[in-house]
Amino acid sequence: MARRSLSSQGPVRVATALLAVLPALAATAREPLADGREFTFLYQTSTLPRAEHEYEQWVTWQTNRESDPEYDRLEFRQEFEHGISDRLQFGFYLATWRYTRTSSGEDTAVHDTAVELVYNLADPAESALGAAVYGEVKLDREFFEVEGKLLLEKPVGAWVLAYNAVIESEWEGTDWGEDSGELAQLLGVSRRLSPRLSIGGEVLHEVGFADWKDAAQSALHAGPNLALRHRAWWTTATALVQVTSVDAEPGLQLRVLVGKPF
C-alpha cells in the first residue's frame, strides 16, 4: 500500500510543480523586450520616451584599404541617451578613442567628444511614414565637425524600411583651417523573424569634398546585419563590404552596438 501511495503521488507532485512554475514562465514571456536598433550605420526615427535613458557601446573595425594593405582601425564610442520629451532625444558621447595601424606605424588617440539631438517629426507607428531630423556636433582640440541627417522609416508588417540623407562639414588642424565635407545616403531593410531576432542589410553611399569644391570618387558599401533583443539589453551587428574600388576607403567595416535601457 505504501508503494502504491508513493507512486500515485509522483504525477501529483509533477503537476503541482508545473502549476507552480507556469505562472512564472508566463510572466517571463510577457516581460517586454528592450526596443533596440535594427541597424548600426543607419538611424531610425523613433526616440526615447520622456525621462527614459539608455547606454550604448559602439565598436567599429575598419580594414583592407587598397592604398595601405596594413591599415586597421578600431574605434570605440560610448553614448548616453536621454528622452527630453516623447519626441526630443539628447545624446552625449564620451571621449571617442581610436587605435590605428598603418604602414607608417601605430597610434592610439582620443579623437572627439560629441553631442546630438534627434527630433521625431512623425511616429512610424502612427503615421504613413516616420520622419525625424538629427543634428550632431563633434569637437576636439584639432577637429570640429557638424553633421545633419534626415531620417525616414516605414514599417510594413514584419519588415522595416529606413533611409538617411546625411550632410557633414569638418575642420581639422591646429586652427581648424583644413575644410572638407561629405554627402551620404543610407538605405536599410530588416525583417523581424521573432520578437527577439531580426535580420536585414544596409547600404551606404558616400562622396567627400575637399573645401566643398572638388568631389572625390564616391564609395558604395553594402552588407548584412543581425539584431538581437533581450529583456535587459539589445545588440546589433553589421558587416559592410566596399562594392566600389576607392583606394582610400576600407574594404571591410564591422560595427557592433550594445544597448541597455536604464
Structure in words:
It is a single chain. The chain folds into two domains: 1-31; 33-261, Autotransporter beta-domain (Lipocalin, Beta Barrel). It has a twelve-stranded antiparallel beta barrel. The protein is built from one helix and 13 strands; from the N terminus they run αβββββββββββββ. The longest helix is centred in the first third of the chain and has 29 residues, at 2-30. It starts with a helix and ends with a strand. With 262 residues, it is mainly β. Residues 1-11 and 24-29 have low confidence and may be disordered.
Mean pLDDT: 89
Enter the CATH topology name of the largest domain: Lipocalin
Number of domains: 2
Going by CATH, the homologous superfamily of the largest domain would be Autotransporter beta-domain
Largest sheet composition: 12 strands, antiparallel, barrel
Alpha carbon gyration radius: 24 Å
Beta fraction of the residues? over 45%
Overall 3D shape: globular
